[in-house]
Amino acid sequence: MTLRVAVIGSGPAGIYTAEALVKQAQEDVQVDVIERLPTPYGLVRYGVAPDHTSIKSIANYLRRVLELPEVRFLGGVTLGEHLSVEDLLASYDAVVYATGAMVDRKLGIPGEDLPGSVAATDFVNWYCGHPDVSASMFTLDSPEVAVIGVGNVAVDVVRVLAKTAEELSSTDVPHDVLERLGESQVKAIHMIGRRGPEHAKFTLKELRELGELANADVCVREDEAVVLGGDFPRQIRGNIDVLQSWAGRDPVGRPRRLDVRFWLRPVEILGTDRVEGLRLERTRLSEEGRVVGTGEFETIPVGMVLRSVGYQSVPLPGVPFDERSMTVPNEAGRIREREYVAGWLKRGPTGVIGTNKSDAAETVRTLLSDLAGHDRLRSAPIDALLHERGVRPVTYDEWLAIEAAEGALAKSLGRGERVKLAGLEAMLRACRP
Q1: Are 265 and 291 in contact (CB under 8 A)?
Q2: What whole-number distance in Å separates Cα of residue 394 and Cα of residue 55?
């Protein structure tokens, strides 16, 4: 009898889980990858910066998994709206939740809820064409912008803010978004870290890319680039060397300026009706290694603050969730009988895209061991249940139609290989004319 498994989420964690099930199962297996959006690939499509085409090529690998005869893509189906956990357990032998980490952590400071103070993930979703974010969400009408955080997401955000629309025209940025980027009034970008250069989370490759910006001078203050001793790993040593090589060099008059700042923490976002400034406090490390304030403050006159201080998962309806770790409690991927978890929802937002492969393999080993020799309990085919509820899932062939429409749009605009369609309606019109 065929083993039937539902995987909730079609990002790398979900698709690697489907692949592991096909490879590890010692019996016939059928995997339904269920996704709330009409498009697969998760952060590979909606989280990787548009100018990082080499990383986006991971989608070609994920595509091959979705094309396996044992795997089926069901897009436009939402857990908690169209289906419940009980529905899934009645239709499948096991369920694996792999929905990732979908929201930014908050700063927890006064003024954070002012208009103009937003999560970096919203900005990333905007320039990546995520259907949850309207193309009209951002108007880049402020001369100065602050990005809080010194990780790779922050680097992606400041790089997109620093580039011209012409530099991004060959990418898949939605056309309405590209036009708004072309109207940007941003002249100064401040990337701010609470600790020193040795604590920054960006990788060396991404950091070096900032030094290659043709449209922006990159500046680091000499006093903030000082690092006291320490035998640092190669990656961190490389970051320090690059940042110190930028320290104190004079701007050459490019249209925009990127200030990479360290040893500062935001204490208040200023403004009445919208963001008008950001108050920062100089920091240092205590003897215990904690970041503490020094009582020295400065204010920068920014009109937008983007926070990039980490992702966190959100609870799924009917699935256990630990509010402290912001993950689903599990043991080697097992949540409870016939329910499993993989990816960031399982371990927190750590690792790179490829980390999800070994993580998924562990969960699948647990699942297959648990189900070995057990009777199959399912009774209600999911297709009939969705039909009864008036839900028509987006098929893999329909996703390919969306992809083809994006290629045709790029050709008509003279822009690269493809341009993302903006909004659910445009996607559904492309696959269901």
Answers
A1: yes
A2: 25
